[in-house]
């Protein structure tokens, strides 16, 4: 019997960001992605992987992909309370700084709230196939090895995934400096309009078919379903503000490649959120098409919040 290869831990570190990026895009959870990376490294250190650099990268991606597929299947089997949204992650953790500008924007787009919620329509194997091909640039045979199938099945799965996402892909706005600045301005105007209870400003700011999604994960008070339509969304956000949901501390962040606000809220109500992250997507006309609000505590652990609840 051949002795197992002993992997030097130093050989694993350069692969951490890529493995986290894959696992996060598969699962939409930074905590679960960290778990996948740690388990992948543990298996390598236990003698499961090759020590030749190119072969090691392929092996790590294969192990991480299969672990992420299993984790995604468990999450979907267990179910989720209310709308599901990704956990917000600082932008710098999701992009390779050595890549050129166009490649960085493509990487960030693939980790955006819009893309990650759209990917929820795909099965775990379709999701893995799409990400490995479109984001990480693996070949058909490499994807087949990573997902435990044949090269022919990879082509079929990739076609199905692209077809399922075609409508979203046509509607999305390409990410770039101008789009990011427009989103930042819209986010600031949204916060001001809600704070001042300016319904007219909100009507001008929001699309007719705007959607508001709030993720409390069953832990914190949040809308239990998607709220659709301008009037319904305005009513919801003004009602929350009237209940005392306005923050006492707010800071702009760059999360998942987009402008966002992190906030702390001081309201003494059962299950009321103390911390929140809000970000938006814009329609082609510049109005807000989607509002994403994450208040589930287990999804905000990667972020720091200033201030203190009295």
Number of E-type strands? 6
In the CATH hierarchy, the third-tier topology of the domain at 177-299 is known as Nuclear Transport Factor 2, Chain: A
The secondary-structure element order is HHHHHHHHHHHEEHEEEE
Gyration radius, rounded: 21 Å
Strand order of the biggest β-sheet: 2-1-6-5-4-3
What level of helicity do the residues show?
40-55%
Strand proportion, as a percent range, falls in 5-15%
Main sheet attributes: strand count, strand direction, barrel closure:
6 strands, mixed
CA(first)-CA(last) distance:
64 Å
List the total number of helices.
Answer: 12
CATH-derived architecture of the domain at 177-299: Roll
* Low-pLDDT stretches: none
Mean of residue pLDDT?
89
Shape by Cα distribution: globular
Q: Can you identify the CATH class of the domain at 177-299?
A: Alpha Beta
Structural class: alpha+beta
Write up what this structure looks like:
By secondary structure, the protein is of the alpha+beta class. It has a domain at 177-299: Nuclear Transport Factor 2, Chain: A (Roll). Helix content is 49%, strand content 13%. It contains twelve helices and six strands. Strands 2-1-6-5-4-3 form a six-stranded mixed β-sheet. Helix 1 packs parallel to helix 3 and helix 10 (177-195) runs antiparallel to helix 11. The protein is globular. The termini are far apart.
């Amino acid at each position: 019997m051949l002795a197992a290869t002993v992997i030097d831990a130093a050989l694993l570190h350069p692969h951490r960001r890529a493995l986290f990026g894959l696992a996060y895009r598969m699962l939409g959870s930074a905590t679960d992605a960290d778990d996948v990376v740690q388990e992948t490294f543990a298996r390598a250190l236990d003698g499961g992987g090759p020590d030749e650099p190119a072969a090691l990268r392929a092996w790590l991606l294969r192990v991480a992909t299969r672990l992420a597929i299993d984790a995604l299947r468990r999450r979907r089997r267990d179910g989720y309370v209310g709308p599901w949204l990704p956990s917000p992650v600082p932008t710098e953790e999701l992009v390779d700084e050595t890549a050129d500008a166009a490649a960085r924007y493509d990487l960030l787009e693939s980790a955006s709230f819009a893309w990650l919620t759209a990917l929820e329509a795909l099965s775990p194997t379709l999701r893995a196939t799409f990400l490995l091909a479109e984001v990480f640039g693996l070949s058909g045979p490499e994807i087949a090895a990573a997902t435990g199938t044949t090269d022919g099945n990879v082509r079929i799965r990739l076609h199905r995934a692209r077809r399922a996402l075609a409508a979203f892909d046509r509607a999305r706005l390409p990410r770039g400096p101008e789009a990011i600045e427009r989103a930042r301005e819209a986010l600031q105007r949204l916060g001001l309009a809600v704070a001042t209870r300016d319904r007219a400003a909100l009507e001008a700011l929001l699309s007719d078919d705007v959607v508001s999604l709030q993720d409390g994960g069953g832990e914190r008070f949040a809308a239990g379903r998607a709220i659709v339509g301008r009037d319904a969304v305005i009513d919801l956000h003004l009602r929350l503000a009237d209940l005392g949901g306005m923050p006492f501390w707010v800071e702009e962040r760059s999360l998942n490649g987009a402008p966002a606000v992190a906030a702390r809220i001081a309201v003494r109500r059962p299950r009321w959120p103390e911390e929140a992250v809000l970000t938006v997507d814009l329609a082609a006309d510049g109005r807000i098409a989607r509002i994403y609000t994450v208040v589930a505590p287990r999804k905000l652990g990667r972020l720091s919040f200033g201030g203190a609840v009295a």
